[in-house]
Amino acid sequence: MSTEHTGGSGSEAGTGRAGSADGPPMVEVRGVHKSFGALDVLRGVDLRVRTGEVTVVLGPSGSGKSTLLRSINHLEKLNRGYVAIDGELIGYRRSGSTLHELKEREVLKQRLHIGFVFQNFNLFPHLTVVENIIEAPVSALRRPRRAAVEQARALLERVGLADKADAYPRQLSGGQQQRVAIARALAPEPKVLLFDEPTSALDPELVGEVLDVIKDLARSGTTMIVVTHEIGFAREVADTVVFMDEGVIVEQGPPAELLDRPRHTRTKAFLSKVL
Ligand code: ADP
Ligand code: MG
Question: I need a surface site. Which of 28, 31, 89, 256 has the fewest CB within 10 A?
Answer without folding.
Answer: 256
